[in-house]
Amino acid sequence: MTPLLTVDNLRVTFPRAAGPSTPVDGVSFAIDRGERVALVGESGSGKSLTCLALLRLIPNPGVIAPGSSIRLDGTEVLSLEGEALRAIRGGRIGLVFQDPMTSLNPVLTVGYQVREAVTAHRNMSRAEARDRTIALLDEVGIPDPAERADAYPHQLSGGLRQRVMIAIALAGEPDLLVADEPTTALDVTIQAQILELLDRIRARRNMAVLLITHDLGVVAGRTDRVMVMYAGQIIETAPTARLFAAPAHPYTQALLQSMPRLTGPVGRLVSIGGSVPDPTAWPTGCRFHPRCDRRITPCAGEVPPWRAAGPGQEARCWLIEGVAP
Amino acid sequence: MSGPLLEVADLVKHFPQGHGLFRPGRTVHAVNGVSLTVAPKETLALVGESGSGKTTAGRAVLRLVEPDAGTVRFDGVDVLAADRRAMKALRRRMQIVFQDPYGSLDPRMTVGASVAEGIEIHRLAPKPEIRARVERLLGEVGLEPAAADKYPHQFSGGQRQRIGIARALGVDPAFVVLDEPVSALDVSVQAQVLNLLLDLQRDRGLSYLFIAHDLAVVRQVAHRIAVMYYGRIVEQGGRDEVLERPRHPYTRALLSAVPEPDPAAQRVRIVLPGDPPSPTSPPPGCPFASRCFHPARDGRCAAERPELRPVGPSLVACHHAESTWETPR
């Protein structure tokens, strides 16, 4: 069975006077139907641009470089135009952004905005569209949906606004929901509500979810597979339980160790020295080598190949001896 | 060492809102009777979600917003009664580091000028020695001396937060309000800044009021924890006591919502329904009653506001705090 989504050698470049920068540089992955995948990275890793590229929403003057490929059910998204592209955007691929306050239009009721998404991909009568809108608001757990449909975004709490965003993303009956930091702007107790809601909807609709986040804690127990991104590239991919139990890449290991936890030792944390490199000047060889305290001879000069590190687990690091896949 | 350095009692701050020509104004009850103490060299974490009043409480302590009622004593001095001159002297000893390292530095001032500002205002060093003092401060927070000649936009978020810390330390304070100092930072950088704050506390004997929403972060730095909900402290106690034996249902929910990087962790996830009540119309009873999952909750919760009272070694504002512990973990 072919995967639902296949991304192959995705590169995003931005022209600059001093030569182009490449904030996304050779990203490849696949997502199966109904699968829950996380793309984890710090700011500047290229994770959000990767997600925007899936919908061809790269901001000007950035471009998706020739040689990149994004196939949805075998159709090359990068060669679609007009109506066919619109059927993907908000149709087969739904998108939820981080900040519902800036993504919703403040002068339109939330019902209007959901209805707009409902009718964008399907012809239906006004009454049908109204019913469908209320059903969607109900599905995302908005109390009194018929009444709340007439509310403006500022009249709703942050959690309810994010539910409206999810309703809009679901309106086109997507096969894949891309959620870019969907809970980062929310309080922890509201974050828990939204993550639970996303998972319930995913199970009911058998929809695939690509969760983009900087927080490994959000990923644990809520995804099947994790891809870790650093400096424009995926550097490790593993089944979620495996990644937490036996992270293979020194960056993943350091990231997990630097997280403050509710259990274990208290006080000073393990920290990664330095900061995330700039896309205009990626380090040579392994891009993590300037910050890696275990670097060896080839790390600075040669790009590490993918190596199998465990069942379903691969990482790009010279330290990995290589386990038979 | 005798008694607390900072003593806050019954602090109240209300914000009038929505005064219209024909419409009576409403009042946002941001801080509603908060009492706390911070001892020398101690870190008290003030924990809560947005709208809980934790940030307003932190600012009211420094009179960055003027409290409506209550008392604040710092090292025996009545802060709220202090005149301009006395306040200036107090500000040298009480500093603040803000959450947003992008918004809290003047983009047109060099880093050196920003860090030197407090030293100049308080005349803590003769002019020719200021530069050396600034460079020493930058070194103390892990930046190069050359950083003094650069502008804030030339630094990453973590480096800017270090600059904000150097700026606060310039006047050699005894007490610092840290208002979500690491929440805008990436995880790997967050650890660097938390470690720096721990080192500075040890080396300089600082007291911190650490305002945060993330209990996992708080666990690394706090000696005691006060949990705020809806403008009030609902639980207060020693760090381990609050984290290991939470007695208020809200504290339990907050703990269970912390995303932990361990899929094997067998935890009962408590997902709270709904949102906190509107800040302009406080309910008569317990403000948490509308979202509470305590099996013993009853009519008393909706009718009568629970006061903060001793339960075991902690202080808890819940009518049923004694039995909270028996709910599944």
Q: How would you characterize the overall build of this protein?
A:
The complex is a heterodimer of chains A (325) and B (329). Chain A is built from 11 helices and 13 strands. Chain A has helices at residues 47-54, 82-88, 100-103, 110-120, 126-139, 145-148, 158-170, 188-205, 216-219, 240-245, 250-257; strands at 5-14, 21-31, 36-40, 63-64, 69-72, 75-76, 93-96, 176-180, 208-213, 225-230, 233-239, 306-310, 313-316. In chain A, the strands form 2 sheets. In chain A, strands 7-8-9-3-10-11-13-12 form an 8-stranded mixed β-sheet, with helices on both faces. In chain A, strands 1, 2, 4, 5 and 6 form a 5-stranded antiparallel β-sheet that branches. The longest helix of chain A has 18 residues, at 188-205. Chain A is globular. Chain B has 329 residues and is α/β, with parallel strands linked by helices. Chain B is globular and about 70 Å long. Chain B starts with 5 loop residues before the first strand and ends in a 5-residue tail after the last helix. In chain B, the strands form 2 sheets. An 8-stranded mixed β-sheet of chain B has the order 6-7-8-3-9-10-12-11, sandwiched between helices. A 4-stranded antiparallel β-sheet of chain B has the order 2-1-4-5. Chain B has 11 helices and 12 strands. Helix content of chain B is 32%, strand content 22%. The A-B interface holds A 42-43, 143, 157-160, 187-193, 196, 214-221, 240-241, 244-245, 254-256, 258-263, 266-273, 275-276 and B 49-50, 156-159, 186-192, 194-195, 198, 213-217, 219-220, 243, 253-265, 269-275.
